[in-house]
Amino acid sequence: MLTLAEVAAEPALLTRRVGLGDGTEVVFRPLTHADAERLAEFLRELSPESRRFSTFGGYDLAFARELCDAIARYDKLRLVLEEAGSGRIVGLLELALDLHPSDIARYHEAGIALTAADCRFGPTLADDHQGRGVGTLVFPLVADVARRFGRTRIVLWGGVLADNARAVRFYEKQGFRTVGAFTEADGTRALDMILDLPAPPDD
Ligand SMILES: CC(C)(COP(=O)(O)OP(=O)(O)OC[C@H]1O[C@@H](n2cnc3c(N)ncnc32)[C@H](O)[C@@H]1OP(=O)(O)O)[C@@H](O)C(=O)NCCC(=O)NCCS
Q1: Which atom of ligand 1 is the closest one to the Cα of 91?
Q2: All domains of the chain in start order, with CATH
């Protein structure tokens, strides 16, 4: 089973190239310490709508540095999609390997006992990469990473806003099912969704 320290020491362990079907390619790889500037650019470019759907603690270089400094220090594994050629970051795919007590409590109410075999997932694509099937292309790679960390289920990190129709559809397409609903501090409805990871495809 992989560890965060191993991935930080050797990002190539999880690095893959993915063709987007339009002749362009992205590199799927762990975030590294050298990414702060490019990650800041990605965060800065996110539209107000994307920021509402995927809320971060900041959208600037200081916050990007925080995420880079957090590599292998906490429970988070952050993967990026980097446009081959330009090196521009066009996606941030986050996995949290530890569970938050509030998630445990909400899923408990839904009759689901979260365990150490669960992890949390939150994806964000650059605005110009949304709605083009990119999330669907790369999700199997995320599922594979989760399995390599010994996880057999994935829940949504902080749920998904009920009015985020594209994301809900995206998760359903990947096999997630809705198991509960809750209200955010600002009164917005959000859904909890969970995925039992299917067995890895045969090579
Ligand atoms: C959510 C996200 C990761 C999904 O990735 P994606 O590459 O855009 O998703 P895909 O294009 O692979 O799939 C989207 C699906 O939703 C459908 N869709 C698009 N807009 C839709 C809408 N308004 N209502 C319903 N379905 C919609 C698409 O047609 C597609 O389904 P299909 O393949 O059956 O046609 C990406 O859109 C994103 O980063 N959004 C902004 C941040 C965000 O919402 N993150 C999730 C936070 S929980």
Answers
A1: 39
A2: 4-196 (3.40.630.30)
